[in-house]
């Protein structure tokens, strides 16, 4: 089954805990992105990465961290420094920068702080 | 700072009406403008626009880009209840890395 896999679908976290959200792709695409979506709002960019071992902060990177050790994987860690982490998190990938391609999304992870 | 603004934020119409959704952008190193439909979870791709004045069409949906005015519209004719969704507009930029910046979305509700 090809595409983008985000796991888990639902995640509950106690205050003060770090959690890691997984995003794996088998599309062999270069660029990967993490977005946060709050109810009734659009997608806000957290981090993005074009190549392995390189990533850039988006508009709301504070309280989050990422790694890009493999082309296929771009995990997002929500740290205890993120004061309001309850949200829907979406991972996306897009093709080579030399070609104009659309971005494809995973099914998302809904994180709830309890 | 790269910015994408959509309007209206919310729209309620009757089945059969025609709607126009707006998207303006202000980004550096613009590459393309993308439209997505989001019903439950993952947004699904609708259109990608790279050139001004060329309308893209898919059934009852169409979209056009104006790179001079930094603006795009998404039209839906003869709306159906299944068109109810959040419509997202995004600008793809490239400065070393590709970056995809989204607007706030327009929540469209079609009443029977």
What does this structure look like?
The complex is a heterodimer of chains A (114) and B (112). With 114 residues, chain A is an all-beta fold. In chain A, 0% of the residues lie in helices and 46% in strands. Chain A is built from no helices and 11 strands. In chain A, strands 2, 4, 5, 6, 9, 10 and 11 form a 7-stranded mixed beta sheet that branches. In chain A, a hairpin with a 5-residue loop joins strand 4 and strand 5 (43-49). The termini of chain B are far apart. Helix content of chain B is 0%, strand content 63%. Chain B has strands at residues 3-7, 10-14, 19-26, 30-38, 44-49, 56-58, 61-66, 71-76, 85-95, 97-102, 106-111. In chain B, the strands form 2 sheets. In chain B, strands 2, 4, 5, 9, 10 and 11 form a 6-stranded mixed beta sheet that branches. In chain B, strands 1-3-8-7-6 form a 5-stranded antiparallel beta sheet, with no helix packed on it. In chain B, a hairpin with a 4-residue loop joins strand 7 and strand 8 (71-76). Chain B is built from no helices and 11 strands. Chain B has 112 residues and is mostly beta strands. The interface between A and B is medium-sized, with 32 and 26 residues.
Summarize the structure in short.
Chain A has about 110 residues and is an all-beta fold. Helices cover about 0% and strands about 45% of the residues of chain A. In chain A, the strands form 2 sheets. In chain A, strands 2, 4, 5, 6, 9, 10 and 11 form a 7-stranded mixed sheet that branches. In chain A, strands 1-3-8-7 form a 4-stranded antiparallel sheet, with no helix packed on it.
């Amino acid at each position: 089954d090809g595409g983008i896999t985000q796991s888990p679908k639902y995640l509950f976290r106690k205050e003060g805990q770090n959690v890691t959200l997984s995003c794996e792709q088998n599309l062999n695409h270069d660029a990967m992105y993490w977005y946060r979506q709050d109810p009734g709002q659009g997608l806000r960019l957290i981090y993005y990465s074009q190549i392995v071992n390189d990533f850039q902060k988006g508009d709301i990177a504070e309280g989050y961290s990422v790694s890009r050790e493999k082309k296929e994987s771009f995990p997002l860690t929500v740290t205890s420094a993120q004061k309001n982490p309850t949200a829907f998190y979406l991972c996306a990938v897009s093709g080579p920068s030399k070609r104009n391609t659309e971005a494809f999304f995973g099914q998302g992870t809904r994180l709830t702080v309890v | 700072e790269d910015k994408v603004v959509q309007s209206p934020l919310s729209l309620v119409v009757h089945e059969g009406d025609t709607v126009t959704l707006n998207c303006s952008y202000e980004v550096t190193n613009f590459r393309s403008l993308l439209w997505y439909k989001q019903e439950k979870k993952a947004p699904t791709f609708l259109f990608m626009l790279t050139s001004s004045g060329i309308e893209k069409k898919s059934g009852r949906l169409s979209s056009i880009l104006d790179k001079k005015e930094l603006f795009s519209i998404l039209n839906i004719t003869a709306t159906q209840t299944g068109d109810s969704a959040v419509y997202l507009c995004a600008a793809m930029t490239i400065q070393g890395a590709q970056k995809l910046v989204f607007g706030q979305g327009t929540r469209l509700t079609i009443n029977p």
